[in-house]
What we know:
This protein has 160 residues and is an alpha+beta fold. Helix content is 29%, strand content 28%. It has one domain (3-159).
Amino acid sequence: MAAAAAMLMSDDDDAEPQVNVVENYHLVDSQKHPACFSTLPLWHDDTKDVPECKKRLVLRGTADPGVIVYKEVVAWRLVLEGKQPEIAVLPVDCNGWIRLVKPKNSYEEVIRKVLITAQMLHFLRRKPDEPEKNLWSHLQKVFGYFPCMLYVVLVVFVMW
C-alpha cells in the first residue's frame, strides 16, 4: 500500500486522520459476526444523498503505516473504470470513501461471490466481445482456483 495515499494527517493533533485505503480488512455486524459489504446500500455516482442504512457494519483493518482502522460504514460502491475493479465503503461521517484492497484471509470466503462478480463485470465491460474461454482464463488467473464454479457458471448464464 502506498504510504502517501493511505492517510492524510490534519493540522489538528486531536483530529482523527483521514483513511483512504484499508487492507487486511473485514466487516462485522452488531453481533460481531462477519458480514459482506454488499448487504449495505450500493452507492450510485448520480446519488447525492447518503443512502439510508438500517444495518450497522463496522470496518476493521489496517491503514498504512500499521494504523488500526475501526469505522462504521453506511454504503459501498464498485468502480469498474480502472485497471482492476475497486470496492470502497463510505464511513458514517461521510468523510470520503475508503478503498478496500486486500481482505483478511478468513473474510475472503464471506465476500468471494461479490469479488468474482466484480471481476466478471470489469472484464466484460473492457472486453465485451471476448470469447467465454478468455473470461474463464482471466478469473482463474485472478483467483487461482474455482471453488465457486457453480456460482460463476450461473452468473455467466444470466449475463449472456
